[in-house]
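Section 3.1: Structural characterization of target chains.
Under the original work plan, the team committed to producing a structural model for every single-chain target entering the pipeline before any wet-lab resources were allocated. The record below documents one such target. The sequence was received from the expression subgroup and is listed exactly as submitted; it comprises 72 residues.
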Amino acid sequence: MDLPFYHGPLSKRACERLLLQEGKDGKFLLRDSESLPGVLCLCVFFTLLLFSEETLTGSCSSVFISSYECSL
């Protein structure tokens, strides 16, 4: 994927550090899941909270399968 917000195989911790560096509400990135092949994680920074959603990508749609909230 050649998108500026796609970071490939990035760990949750590395993702958190990257989003915290800028610290802007609405900053987001897309990364590969560490544990589920073919699953993408959408990580969004919002008012000192980091939200992450894992999505299964298919030919027709995306399905949210889990989320976690990281208090910073």
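Residues 12-71 form a domain with the SHC Adaptor Protein fold (CATH 3.30.505.10).
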